[in-house]
Amino acid sequence: MVSMDFGSILIMLVVLIVLARAGSRVFDHFGVPGLIGEIVIGIVIANLVIGDWSLLGTLGISTGDDPSQNYEVVEIFAELGVIFLLFSVGLETKVKDLISVGKAAMLVAVLGVIIPFIAGFALIQVYDGNIHHAMFMGSAMVATSVGITARVIKDMRLMNSRESRIIIGAAVIDDILGMIVLAIVVGMTVSGEMSVSNIFVITAEAVLFVIAILAVALVAVPRIYGYFERRNRERFDRTGESHSGVNKLILAIAVCLGLSWFADMIGLAAIIGAFLGGMLLAEYAWEWKLEEKIEAITTLFISFFFLNVGMQVNLETLTSVPVIALAAAIILLAVISKYLGCSWGAKIGDRSLSKDSRSIIGFGMIPRGEVGIIVASIGLASGAMSSELYAVVVLMAVATTIIAPPLFARAFRKKYPTEYKLTQDDLV
Amino acid sequence: MVSMDFGSILIMLVVLIVLARAGSRVFDHFGVPGLIGEIVIGIVIANLVIGDWSLLGTLGISTGDDPSQNYEVVEIFAELGVIFLLFSVGLETKVKDLISVGKAAMLVAVLGVIIPFIAGFALIQVYDGNIHHAMFMGSAMVATSVGITARVIKDMRLMNSRESRIIIGAAVIDDILGMIVLAIVVGMTVSGEMSVSNIFVITAEAVLFVIAILAVALVAVPRIYGYFERRNRERFDRTGESHSGVNKLILAIAVCLGLSWFADMIGLAAIIGAFLGGMLLAEYAWEWKLEEKIEAITTLFISFFFLNVGMQVNLETLTSVPVIALAAAIILLAVISKYLGCSWGAKIGDRSLSKDSRSIIGFGMIPRGEVGIIVASIGLASGAMSSELYAVVVLMAVATTIIAPPLFARAFRKKYPTEYKLTQDDLV
What we know:
2 copies of one chain form a homodimer. By secondary structure, chain A is mostly helical. The first copy, chain A, is built from 18 helices and 2 strands. In chain A, a hairpin with a 2-residue loop joins strand 1 and strand 2. The longest helix of chain A is centred in the middle third of the chain and has 44 residues, at 196-239.
């Protein structure tokens, strides 16, 4: 019990929570979504070096190849934060609502994958002519990180809008497609060949997982619930005890973390499992008072996710003019290609959507967050990507994450002027 | 962001949460406080070895000198769990109520420190005649770990009983006294001399810290609150906006972790800081709905604390007859000396307390938990304690933690037969 310097972890947590909150308040005050403030604070923390002194060092956070214990705590909190965030989004999403937007979500996802891939591939093919580089950049442009968008949707209390449902549904499908693209690219680049059976297995696993969860949510969960409901009623008639014996919050936490693990194990993002887990319990979330409890847990963790996004930015990489120019081009392309792909998908998928709604969907899918960085780091580890391009992908992931929320929030506010109320205090 | 095997951490968390819950339910079913079940599950997890296979290994938890990342997560969750638990106890404790039991709490603490110290010292002096061993054993017998008792009090919803307040107040004072005893023993054993000025500084720091918090709670907090209250009312009159701009939960988390860090830094237990932090906000806990939110966070973490207590037990140390005999004697002495010291202190300190009430207080102070283990590990590291005696202290700490709750719960139930309702489901 005494193997770690817990005091150092405690003070780091306090400093980070207070700084994140301050950043969030300042940005919020100027009408910019507070999470951008948290990301900016993360960038400042990671890059504040005065002579020999650095804020990271003072906080005991060393990142890089041999991260310190304190940085591991930041990473764990960040990951748990986005897992619980997506779980709470799932708690507000009923399966039927998601299925009702299925066709639109599918087209948004497919076009939102194809167009950014082509854009990234083409630009790097022209830039340095290395087909491996080009394929990894294409893959890194594909995956949407729905955590950022989910936070904005939750902040604005617009979980039940049709646009929100299409975005969330498309993000789930997008993640499966992104995984397939990555499998193809890794297969072709690293081993020099593409194993069709391997790709088929990965695809089948992911699709089966999602279908299985949907089926369980629609068929099994109501029956299990009904069984316990009846049993408790019978016991109540017999003994007068109303105590059901199941702690709902612990059940919810176990479902959330269990499905996150399972999704991670089969190669999907953990947050997709968390979202599906929330959806499993969505019918009972209100009755069990799950939402406010999960929100309290999310509050403790979530700022670390946004801080950590910012902490990935190494401002030193921004000193070479060609890298800056390339990064600017990639960022621009990442924003435009995703917006066009997704809003076009929305147009084909659901003719009833207005232009404003298509904009919301297009903007909502822009953030790449950590998913693009993970793709690039696989490329870097396998030698199929240069460290220069890796830095560009990190900048692209962070920049799309910063650019999207204000555009997205503004589009939402335009469409729903009265329902909108973006106050940080309401958040949790 | 990809430096850790997060999948392995997720599945470990799920397995531990589910096992702890199962253990808790089984023990609860047989009328034993559920936390004992969690401790027993911890013992089983740490000792389940079949041939080359061990459950710890499968879960990726290696403890010992070079703990694995997964075990560090368990430790952090355990520590945060007991911190948030004591914070929520503080949230239910108003300063005035605590001061009203001051005299009784002081006497309970003082006699509850002196008598166990003498008992432990005398036994080891007779056993092996080594005065350093004897002094460390005496110190390890002193400190009460209020986490266990706090959980039982919360489970039974008896936070507002006079006995509970005396126990909590005595635990705070006990921790300060324990720290002073440890400073004296370390000074005399390790450096061979005792620095009076050093002890004076430590004592003054601890006492000043507690007094400062009490003063802030009584004087400063109501004024700060009043100021913001007025400002918000004026703004509401002016603009119609009721939004105060301060996220109360984040404020509470920052106060909790900040004071935990500060207490740790000046040499007190972190949980004492957490408790005092909760007390600072006790007057507003209900209005800000803090209790249910902090309880949700506690639920996520707290089982890891009890699991980790159990995981300290190495059943292999229980193979030598002299060690078993010594451990049995120390455990018996630890239970009896604390019970007698504290119930005697309660008798002198508050003549109005009934025999039942004195029993509750005596039993409530028995658990040593992690504090005794920390004392012993300091002794072990400085060479003033043998590894055999260290194993005995660990057994004593775990055994007192297991023995106390049923006795305590039964005494409470006897005194408050109607108010009592011990259901795990109510817990959080």
